[in-house]
Design goal:
ParB/Sulfiredoxin domain-containing protein, about 120 residues, about 25% helix, 4-stranded mixed β-sheet, alpha+beta
């Protein structure tokens, strides 16, 4: 039986979200992100508003280091961000994967070196 792999695509980059969720499963959120800081990127994300209405805002987002300085990029939780913005929620919990975990989850994009080049 084949199981479907959940992925996240942003422009020329793709991550295996199913693998990212396995890394995050045993962790507690290490911080919070403010949805309003991410509002500009929503224009690049395909959001199903009916699905967004049903998501659990208490479930942590998953982010990966997105630059040599380690700034985060959310790879799981965009429907939660959309709902939080609509409902005026100020912060959402987040789990940040390591550079090595980001590399292991990245399917396509970049030079395939650890972290973003």
């Amino acid at each position: 039986m084949m199981t479907e792999v959940e992925t996240f695509r942003l422009m020329g980059w793709t991550w295996d979200v199913s693998a990212a969720k396995k890394y995050a499963a045993s962790r507690h959120p290490g911080g919070h992100l403010r949805p309003r800081h991410w509002a500009g990127l929503l224009a690049l994300i395909d959001i199903d508003q009916l699905h967004a209405d049903l998501v659990d805002l208490g479930e942590p987002l998953i982010a990966v280091p997105a630059s040599p300085r380690g700034g985060p990029l959310v790879i799981d939780g965009w429907h939660r961000i959309a709902r939080a913005l609509r409902e005026g929620v100020a912060e959402l919990p987040v789990i940040l994967l390591s550079k090595e975990e980001e590399y292991a989850c990245r399917i396509h994009g970049g030079s395939r070196c650890n972290g973003w080049a």
